[in-house]
Amino acid sequence: MSVFAAILIGLAMGAIFGMALEKGRVCEGGVIVCQMQMSRHAMLKMFLSAVATGLIVLSILVGFGFAKLSPKATLFAADIVGGAILGVGIVIAGACPGTVLAQIGTGYKDAIFTFIGGLFGALAFTYMEPNILKPVLTAGSYGKLTLDQLLGVPFPAVALGFAAVIIGFLIWLEKVSPWEKEIGPNADGVPEDPVPLPAAAAGAASR
């Protein structure tokens, strides 16, 4: 595949993903912050649906030999520290690296500053990673550790098993907490009696 073709495919997939985020209201600041507070679960439902779909498709591709797994090394320090920093940033900004682009496309002015801040953060990490962060973040590496290897079970069986568990959980979650109530009366994730939001998220929710 040529570089130009890869770019076009990436742009097309990004556009489809962005439209899905907007139509599912997952890019709304209120939806994101309420999910981080575990008070509403519209975002969790959509992302777990994507995970289950990906597991099913990937298990089929791997099972029939159309794809080969290339897992990255397991880095517990990087995953835990990086995940914690990302989570704090998501709550403060009411956006994540994926949803911020959808927010810009839908007219959130605050999202532009979040996007610029993300670019500066990525630039700072690029300069700091080789000599400062790498020795810390790569500590405790266990190599390319995967669950199917640990269990001694073929990947398709593990993937389909987890997909079934996720689907069952989503069915139960939707019954106890329907999506219509979770996105709020204005489809922005803010309920009639909203949970107090950080200033950045509240500003994003009000557009």
Topology:
Elements: H1 3-23, H2 29-36, H3 42-63, H4 76-93, H5 99-105, H6 110-137, H7 147-151, H8 155-176, H9 179-182, H10 199-206
Helix pairs in contact: 1-5, 2-4, 2-10, 3-8, 4-6, 5-6
Structure, described:
With 207 residues, this protein is mostly helical. 69% of the residues lie in helices and 0% in strands. The protein is built from 10 helices and no strands. The chain has helices at 3-23, 29-36, 42-63, 76-93, 99-105, 110-137, 147-151, 155-176, 179-182, 199-206. The N and C termini lie far apart (41 Å). The model has no long low-confidence stretch (mean pLDDT 82).
Question: What form results from the Cα inertia axes?
Answer: globular
> Which class do the helix and strand fractions yield?
mainly alpha
Tell me the series of helices and strands, N- to C-terminal: HHHHHHHHHH
Between the first and last Cα atoms, what is the distance in angstroms? 41 Å
DSSP helix fraction? 55-70%
Number of strands: 0
Give a quick account of the main beta sheet: strands, pairing sense, barrel closure.
none
Query: Per DSSP, what share of the residues sits in E-state strands of 2 or more residues?
Result: under 5%
Give the uncertain stretches in residue-range form: none
The total of helices stands at 10
Summarize model confidence as the mean pLDDT.
82
Radius of gyration: 19 Å
